[in-house]
Write a structure and sequence with these properties.
Strand order of the largest sheet: 3-5-7-8-9-10
Number of helices: 5
Radius of gyration: 24 Å
Structural class: alpha+beta
Length: about 240
């Protein structure tokens, strides 16, 4: 029987036969904590429900999915990554499509975000060096509990073989900004990291979009009733409101 998990890929212009059978794409380990789980969703769901990239560029926004940068090494699993100009494959259950394999997509993600839960993740050490080695243009570390002390948001930009600190949260190439937003998300009040537009207005979630539409419809209905009442009073005075 043919092994459908053996696939010929091109890595660095070299044709290599890759056996995906033993690559660990899922390990069934739970997310760190409730906050991290919600934060990850807040960094992905609004992009799919409310964001239109410049020139309608396709994209993938993933949370807690393996990022494979070498066929001979284990994946690293960012809390969130965003990659532009790529699309998810239709056959997502096939082993070679279950994770983000850089050699399959032909590029590294533009940005990777880590949410610090404890110091075991070594986000400012090992992971920072690894993401630079992989070639991730932007690396973001969100540390809401201040495990690494202040600031709670650190942004790095690739420069040569390593990262340099970026003093703003503007990503012109992505058409996005990042903002710290204090408010309630899914019944939890906290300081959250959110994507925003060029005016630093948060990209709304699906629920926020719905509430916004409901408020706009209610406002329009109120204005319509007010206009009708005014028109009725004019008619009572013998004035045609349509003239």
């Amino acid at each position: 029987m043919e092994n459908t998990n053996i696939v010929v890929s091109v890595i660095d212009d070299e044709v290599i036969e890759i056996d995906y059978t033993n690559l660990i794409t899922e390990d069934d380990k739970p997310v760190d904590n409730l906050f991290s789980e919600k934060q990850q969703r807040l960094l992905t769901e609004p992009l799919y429900t409310s964001w239109t990239p410049l020139n309608d560029r396709p994209f993938i926004a993933l949370a807690n999915v393996g990022l494979f940068y070498s066929s001979e090494k284990s994946a690293v699993v960012p809390d969130m990554m965003l990659s532009l100009d790529v699309s998810a494959p239709p056959e997502m259950w096939e082993k070679q499509h279950r994770s983000y394999f850089i050699w399959k997509y032909g590029k590294a993600p533009e940005i990777v975000i880590e949410v610090v839960s404890n110091l075991k993740g070594n986000e400012l050490g090992y992971k920072k060096d690894l993401y630079a080695q992989i070639g991730i243009p932007y690396y973001v570390v969100f540390d809401p509990a201040e495990h690494y002390n202040k600031p709670i948001l650190r942004i790095f930009k690739k420069n040569g073989f390593g990262y340099v600190t970026k003093n703003d949260a503007i990503f012109e190439e992505l058409g996005l900004n990042l903002v710290l937003w204090e408010g309630e998300y899914e019944d939890a009040y906290s300081i959250w990291l959110r994507w925003a537009d060029h005016e630093n207005k948060p990209i709304p979630t699906g629920k926020e979009q719905k509430l916004r539409a409901e408020r706009e419809n209610a406002r329009a209905e109120k204005e319509s009733k007010r206009a009708e009442m005014l028109a009725q009073k004019l008619r009572e005075l013998g004035i045609n409101p349509d003239e």
